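Bug #77: duplicate submission created two jobs. Keeping one. Sequence:
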Amino acid sequence: MIQDVFYLVAIWTSTFVVGLISWPVASLFFGRLSDRGYTVAKIFGWVVISYALFLLATVKLLPLHFGSLALILLIWLGKNLFLERKFNVLKQKPINLNQIILIEISFFLLMASWAFIRAHDPTIQGIERFMDFGFINTLFNADSLPLYDMWFSGGQVNYYYFGHFIGYVVLSLSNISPVPGFFVLIAWM
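Kept job's structure:
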């Protein structure tokens, strides 16, 4: 039980950090929203970081390892800090701190509620759940992309798997292995 809460807190923490890092760039595009793009920054950050690693691992410039992910995250942090210092995008309008706290509490409670529901039926059910888990597990064992097919020896996956790749990046940054992480990802998504 305590371990399950750790997984939720780890994913929530990494999502919070990625959202905070990505907020200056997201604020440029979504600054007119009442939260100044804070909520969108989480999704935006995961997509940018994941796409950069996906692209660099596909052309084999970086291996598909945590060190590569950390490097991309540091570059993304540097870009956002530079943008914030140069243009002060977050200081142009006042930030409603109560709204930010409410967003974080709501996000965590929704994620915990869905994890509670999934905990009562943790089996992998449905047509694509086995494949989803297989893709994420294979990503943890890969050094580069395109991803090798888990069912066809020597073949490559001929299927869209960028969503699975984002899940892999979330779990890698949260330091959660694919077996328990897959079920937490279902609650996170």
